[in-house]
Amino acid sequence: MGTTRQHPPGDLGREPEGAGVDADAGVGAASSDAAGRQWRTLPLRGVGGVVPTARDFARQALHEWGWLPASSADGRAAAEDVLLVVSELVTNACLHAEGPEEIRIAHAAKVLRVEVVDAGAGQPAPRTPHRAGRPGGHGMFIVQRLCLDWGVLRVPGRPGKTVWAELAAPA
What we know:
Blueprint: E1 23-24, E2 29-32, E3 38-43, H1 50-64, H2 73-96, E4 100-107, E5 111-118, H3 139-146, E6 149-153, E7 161-168
Antiparallel strand pairs: 1-2, 2-3, 3-4, 4-5, 5-7, 6-7
Helix pairs in contact: 1-2, 2-3
């Protein structure tokens, strides 16, 4: 299911530079764009405890957007899925791409998008065949299973990549 499309089904591509109005929302830079998407951005370069920091950032955004506290089991599961995807994408950047540089989360009516920017040249992919009983190598398999879609965005002439994943908003 992973792709390298520039514009995925949820059409929540990277926020244009300078879009929206920056505000301190307590979770890094916050902005909205012309399409009404709400974005949260947190620089991660040089941050200690990067995975828990990214999860806390995502959790705070979910609180601000009304996903947490969840009023139903489905809502709690959707929020936990987001936090797990954040953990997996940031961990992959730590293990395979010289660490994450930034995490961005966008929220629209029906889709939440997580983006992790890194300087790595590699191409993330679920390990095949997937062997559930073996340790390690499950990150992108988990992302693939939990998300509506995921992929990699590269900017020609610039090093690194953005690994993105989209999850459905709770019903």
